[in-house]
Design a protein that fits this description.
200 residues, mainly beta, five-stranded mixed sheet, four-stranded antiparallel sheet
C-alpha cells in the first residue's frame, strides 16, 4: 500500500484540505517509504499527522519513519530535534533524548567522528526520515512520550508527538534477527573496529 501512487486528483484534494507548506506522515517500520517523487495512495486515506504510536520491547532498537512531503514549495535545511514531553513526570516515564537518532540528519562517519546533515527537498518531493530509539533492557514497561521537532528554513517548526508502548518482554538481540524491524540501521553509526583491539 505504501508503493501505490496517488492519483493527481487525489493529491489535489489533499492539498486543498491541508494548507501547510510541507506535510508530515509518520509511518510504521512495516511500511518503508521508498518513493521520492510521488506520494502513496495510503497517505490520501490517512492524511498527514502530528502523532505517532508504536509498540516495542525492552532491549529493542526500535525504528520508525516520518515522511516529509514538500507540498507547496521547496523545503530547505530540513533538520530534526528531540525533546522530552514535559507533561510526563516520574521515574521511568521518559526515554532520554540521547537515545533518539535521525539517521538522515546525523550520524558517525567511518572514522568515528560525529556529523550533522541538513536536507533539502524540491516541491513535490518526498523524504523519509528514519528515526531510531535505543530502548535499554532495564526500561520499565509502559508508554513513553517524546516530541520530535521538524525544522525547515523559513517555515514554522512542526512537532510530532511520539508515543511508544513498551511491553515487559525482553528481546535478546536488539531485533537484529528479524530484518523487518530495521534495527540494524544503528550499525551505520558503529565504531567497532576503529581501535587496535580485536572486535568481540
Amino acid at each position: 500500500p505504501i508503493e501505490v501512487i496517488a492519483l493527481e486528483s487525489e493529491k489535489d484534494s489533499l492539498l486543498e484540505k491541508y494548507k501547510e507548506p510541507y506535510l508530515l506522515f509518520p509511518e510504521d517500520r512495516k511500511f518503508p517509504i521508498r518513493m521520492k517523487d510521488d506520494i502513496p495512495h495510503k497517505w490520501i486515506q490517512t492524511g498527514p499527522s502530528n502523532s505517532f504510536h508504536g509498540k516495542a520491547m525492552r532491549n529493542e532498537y526500535y525504528v520508525f519513519q516520518i515522511g516529509v512531503f514538500a507540498a507547496r514549495s521547496d523545503v530547505e535545511n530540513l533538520s530534526v530535534e528531540f525533546q522530552q514531553d514535559s507533561s510526563q513526570a516520574g521515574e521511568g516515564s521518559i526515554i532520554d533524548n540521547l537515545h533518539f537518532t535521525c539517521f538522515n540528519t546525523a550520524g558517525v562517519d567511518p572514522y568515528g567522528t560525529p556529523f550533522t546533515k541538513h536536507l533539502s527537498l524540491k516541491q513535490g518531493g518526498v523524504q523519509a526520515l528514519w528515526i531510531g530509539v535505543d530502548i535499554p533492557e532495564n526500561t520499565e514497561a509502559g508508554t513513553y512520550s517524546s516530541e520530535i521537532i521538524i525544522k525547515a528554513r523559513g517555515f514554522e517548526d512542526q512537532t510530532v508527538a511520539c508515543h511508544i508502548e513498551i511491553n515487559n518482554e525482553i528481546i535478546s538481540d536488539r531485533g537484529d534477527a528479524e530484518p523487518w524491524r530495521h534495527s540494524r540501521l544503528r550499525w551505520l553509526n558503529s565504531t567497532a573496529g576503529l581501535d587496535d583491539e580485536p572486535v568481540k
